[in-house]
Amino acid sequence: xxxxxxxxSSTQSCTVVVRDAASGALVRQGRAPHPPGTEVDPAxxxxxxxxxxxxxxxxxxxxxxAVAGQQHGLVCLDADGEVVRPAxxxxxxxxxxxxxxxxxxxxxxxxxxxxxxxxxxxxxxTKLRWLATHEPALAARVAAxxxxxxxxxxxxxxxxxxDDLVTDRSDASGTGYFSGTTGAYLPDIxxxxxxxxxxxxxxxxxxxxxxxxxxxxxxxxxxAGDNAGAALGLGAAAxxxxxxxxxxxxxxxxxxxxxxxxxxxxxxxxxxxxEHLPLVCTLNAARVLDAAAAMLSVDHAxxxxxxxxxxxxxxxxxxxxxxxxxxxxxxxxxxGALHGLTLGSAAPSHLARAAxxxxxxxxxxxxxxxxxxxxxxxxxxxxxxxxxxxxxxxIAPAVFGRPVLRPTPGEYVAxxxxxxxxxxxxxxxxxxxxxxxxxxxxEAEPTPQVRDRYAQARDHTIPRVGA
Length: 467
Hints:
By secondary structure, the protein is α/β, with parallel strands linked by helices. The protein has 15 helices and 25 strands. It has a seven-stranded mixed β-sheet with strand order 17-18-16-15-23-24-25, sandwiched between helices. The chain is globular, with a radius of gyration of 22 Å.
C-alpha cells in the first residue's frame, strides 16, 4: 500500500493527513497550532509542520507529500535564503492604503484585465508596496519573494537554492502579479509595486507536476492555495460551488473560464486542477449564528430547532446580518438591521429563522455575482463550522435555488493536498478518483419571495454611528 501525506498550513494551525494513495482512506493524522497575530516568523510554520508530521506518524513510510496553505502571505528571502522579516499574512491590513494607491494608479478595470481581480489589502502585491515604502532597507535585501506554501515546499526539498522555489497557479493567482489566464508573472506590476522586478519568483508548476523530492526521497507535489486545496479535497468540478461558513463566508466555484470583475467583488483565482476558481468573500457567516444564539439565550442546536419551527420567510421578519459591515456588497460601515417586526413575528422561532435566512441570503448575493459573471452554478457544497447547523443545511437549497451537499466534516484542505500528492505519485493526467466522503443531500422548493424581501431590507441598511 502506497501512502501519501497532505499538509494544511492554515492561519491558525497545521494539519497533516496520511491517506492510502489508491483509495484515499484515512490512515492517521496530526495537528499543531500556529502562533497568533498577522505577522509570523515562517520558522513557526516549519516547527508546527514538524510537530504535526510527528503526530501523524512521520514520513518513513510515506511516498509523496503536498502542502496547501493560507494564501497571499508575503515571505521575503535574501540572497542566502534567509527570511528577511516576519511574514505579513493575508489578514494584515496595514497595506490597505497601499492597495488603494495601486488600484488608483492602474484603475480597477486594468487590474481586473491583468490579474482577474482588483487587489485589496490581503493580496501579496499590496504588501510588497508597503514594504518598499515603510521598510526600504529590508526591501533592498530581498532577493526572492514567495508564499507560505511555497516556502514550506522549498524547505522540505532542502536544497537551499532560490532557483528551487516553486508554486502552483492557484496560489500564484492570489499574489496580484500573476495572470491565471496566461499563466505568467507580470513583471511590470511587480516593478510598479516594489520598485524593482529583479527578484526570484517561484517557478509555476502545472497541475500534477512534481516539485522534486525531500532529502529522504519523498516525492513532493506543487501544493496549492487553501481554497483550491479544499475544492480538490471535496472533488468539486465545473458547475460546483463550495460555500464555506467560517468566521467569514467564502463562495468559490470551479469554472473552465476565467473572470475579470472590475467591481472587485469576484477574485479571479485559479484552481489546483487547471481550471479557474472565482471567489467571493462575505464578512458575515458563522458569527451571525453565534449572535442570534446569544440573543435568544440558546445553544446552536437550540437555534437550529427554533429556526426549523418557523415558516419560510419568518412571518415577514428579515435580518440583514451586516454585524461587522460587509464587503459583498461593499458596505464596510453598515450595521445589522431587523426589518418587519410585528406582533405576529415577535417570537424566538421567527428571529432564529430570520437569522438563518439572512445569513444564507447574504451568501446567495455572492452566488448571484458568480452567475452574473458567467459562472455555471449547478450544486453547492456546504462546509465549515456554520454548515453543522441542520437549519442552515435544510433551508439553504430553498434560498440558493440549487441542491446542497453537506459532506461529513473533515480536513478538506489537507485532503486536497494529499489527493494532489497521490496524483503526482501516479504520474497520471488527472487526480485519482477517491471514495467520496459520506454526504447528505438537501433539496427544497425555491423561495424567491424570501430573497425578494431580503433585497428590499438590504437596500435600506444604515451606517453605524460615527461612520
